[in-house]
Amino acid sequence: MANYKHFQLETDAQNIAWLSIDKADASTNALSRELVEELESILDELESERPKGLVIRSAKPSGFVAGADIKEFTAIENEAQARELIRRGQGVINRIERLRFTTVALIHGFCLGGGLELALGCDYRIAEDGPKTRLGLPEVKLGIHPGFGGAARLPQLIGAPAAMDMMLTGRSVSASAAKRLGLLDFAVPDRHLETAARSVVQKPPHKKPLAWWKKLSNHPLVRPLLAKYLTKQVAAKAPRKHYPAPYALIDLWAKHGGNKKAMLQGEEHSVARLVLGDTAQNLIRVFFLQERLKSLGASRSVSSSERNASAGTFDIQRVHVIGGGVMGGDIAAWCALRGLQVTVQDRQEATLARVIQRAAKLYKKKLKKPRLVQEALDRLMPDIHGLGVARADVVIEAIFEDVEAKQNLYQEIEPQMKPGALLATNTSSIPLEVLSTCLAEPSRLVGVHFFNPVAMMQLVEIVNAPNTDPAVVDEAAMFTRRIDRLPLPVTSTPGFLVNRILMPYLLEAVVLESEGVSPKVIDQAALDFGMPMGPITLADTVGLDICLAVAETLARSMDVEVPARLRSLVESGRVGKKSGEGFYRYPATKKGKPEMSKPGRGDYRPADIQDRMILRMLNEAVACLREGVVADSDLLDVGIIFGTGFAPFRGGPMHYIETTGADVLLEKMRTMHKKYGERFAPDESWQQLG
Ligand code: COA
Question: CA-to-CA distance for 275 and 16, rounded, in angstroms?
């Protein structure tokens, strides 16, 4: 067995070389420069030794390879450096492809980006047919596209429609889906992986040719037509000026698809240009900020109390949720989906029945296989008498927003709870220090503020009051990670972080509407900035009654004006999508879509419409940072991106202020302050940002 830093290479009795990728000092394999260089020398050795075959696998339990090393992307200074890095990655995969013996990629867990491109360089791909296996080319999510030969090889292997779909959306596929697509040759259970690889090397099976119609999709006469269609599809989701990568990929394939050499060169040029652009650099930054949120849930600080006996671990098996409304029910369903044993308590049987119905719908969508759906449903138990409280590791209260009702409940359940179990509330408006006064141990109460819809919104605000035990905050963050959500610690102040920053922006949109600007023009202005959904559509979707309640909560403690228009709509019963009408109408025939035409030239569109909405948001962000609602500007940025969808390619509100110039924005704020009044009064900390 040869000695390498990032690999283990063994040749067995049948002369098959087994190369295990094992990036040093890392939990995950990523194709760093050093690793690629080492792989080059391993190939030198293999080329001279000529084994019967080569099986490439990963020694990491988490998966195969997560892609090119994203950490190295941030150190690239110019296009020449980027091109050299890409050429190196392409070169090593080309060499694997040219080896004169059979090569097999043996995959478990994730096989993403450069990892999949490496596997595409092998003759055969075999993967574990298990729930953890995911294959994909997620580069567009980082503002680039595949550059290690993925764009050149994948359309040839599985046909352009499926390949372009994977590369343009960045979505990953399971082993069984990959097998159906032709991306994998075999999907087998874990225990058969080695045998499968061995028999493929011993007797390389015949490869099924690509179906004629898939082959046709790469034909020079078909490519322009398909490219036009794909461009239209992409344009409906991501404008070219904000997200250039998918367009660059379509252009590249339309021009050179089928010509491998030209495609590889094109990948090199295109990715080198993209990676240095603002969009990619901001999206890469967001990736690392997301990693930071993940790490917040990975460990716990030293406990001030002796809460859990085994320091450093907080074993979460059982969750008890009280309150079967939309939030409580969906939180319970999500926890069971992520493998926890869940009891959900409500006074009404009918409410619990609805929770289970909604959960079944979610599980069918996410898990597909009836057996897995049934297993998830078995983990979710309706519990009208609250028997689950005593056994739960985490108890989440999600009842209506009433101090007395919540306190009565806490007094009832606290003595029943296991020592060291987490007591969490999903309140969105009541300070924790008010709620916790009734507890024997007030420091144990923590907020876990989920967003609606729970299954889509990754962020969870971990709310802490001055008297909350820091160890409890850590445990709440760990619980959040256990259910695959992102924890963001925030202080127990009105609106916490996300609603507080989102609300002024939504309210300004309502003011604009009451001034006579049409909802579609307002929404379009926000979309042009890069928001994923316009504020008027968002308000209608969340529910105008909910928006009003949040706005009124904020108005009680802060200088927030609640527009009369919002009140009058709610009073008239027009509360948004759920009532069939809010700012827009939602006819039953349009299945939840609003009745709306595209904004036209004749529509009234004030010149400062975008600034009015965005600056109110930025002003609140600056105030939150000054008040310490969140620990620092990076956490604020990532929280607002994941909590509100704030244009990710702009890197978050604080990053946007930094790149645009605080002085420029402050000047605009001052102008608006004069023109529109106190709601535009610049926060005192703008001066220090300049
Ligand atoms: N380059 C460098 N480091 C990477 C990486 C990559 N492509 N992908 C993951 N990592 C690192 C993470 O930074 C983290 O490092 P840490 O242990 O020092 O904190 C570690 O691998 C584990 O990743 P994490 O995200 O915490 O684990 P997870 O199980 O939640 O998710 C992935 C794993 C692979 C699904 C996720 O990390 C991911 O999506 N990575 C990016 C994939 C990608 O975009 N590849 C294309 C690159 S061009």
Answer: 38
